[in-house]
TrEMBL record:
Any one Pfam family match given in the protein's UniProt record, by short name: SMC_ScpA
Subcellular location: Cytoplasm
Lineage, uppermost ranks: Bacteria, Bacillati, Bacillota, Bacilli, Bacillales
Organism from which the protein derives: Salsuginibacillus halophilus
Bilayer-crossing regions: none
Keyword Cell cycle: yes
Entry similarity comment: Belongs to the ScpA family.
Name by which UniProt lists this protein: Segregation and condensation protein A
Amino acid sequence: MQTYSVKIDAFEGPLDLLLHLIQQAEVDIYDIPVAQITEQYMAYIHSMQELALDYASEYLVMASTLLAMKSRMLLPIEEAEDMEADEMLEDEDDPRRELAEKLAAYKQYKEAAGTLETFESERMEKFSKAPSQVDDYIQHEDEQAVPDVGGITVYDMIQAYQNAKNRLKKANEPPAVVKPDTFTVEAQIEDVREKVKTSTGPVSFTNWLAARPPAELVASFLAVLELMKGGEILCRQDGNFSDIWMYRKEEGAS
């Protein structure tokens, strides 16, 4: 009798070992050569018994399943009345079917786990730095005036809007009673126009939002974006992560 020598790394369970043997044989999961795989599997079980591994019992259960499957496939299949019925009978009675489905599902999860492990390894090689103030390294021509760094984007406006919302959450105010009043963007546009028109200087975007109830914040924020888009007001920032200031166009123009 031929002696089998199987050299294997650590397997996570019977399905992991079976999948390894099937991939090594380069066969389809749904067309398992039961006799060949069972022989290789039993050789591995023999090596486990010699090593007296604690978890050998679960492998023995799978070994019993494979042996029963091998015996069942040796039994002759009764002839069907026609070819179509014969193919249907063969498919439904194939003892490998249930095991193949388990192996296919296990393979899918194992590949997904491998992908996640790759993502984790790649992320571990990257280091993130929290935002920091850089105002001390910037020289301004006029320290008394609000410097114009230009380049205000929608993302800067959204960040300032989120900061204002976070300040409101931290205030721990009691729950407000929902009122039927509605706040429209059009009404807030008029409010912004009046605010920058009557103000003697630039208007703080953060302070202007903070003075408003939560239900009004969204409409107020959209109103500022509309006025910026239409060129009626300008928004400037004095440094990274600092407040945004609103001007009338003629007032903020250089």
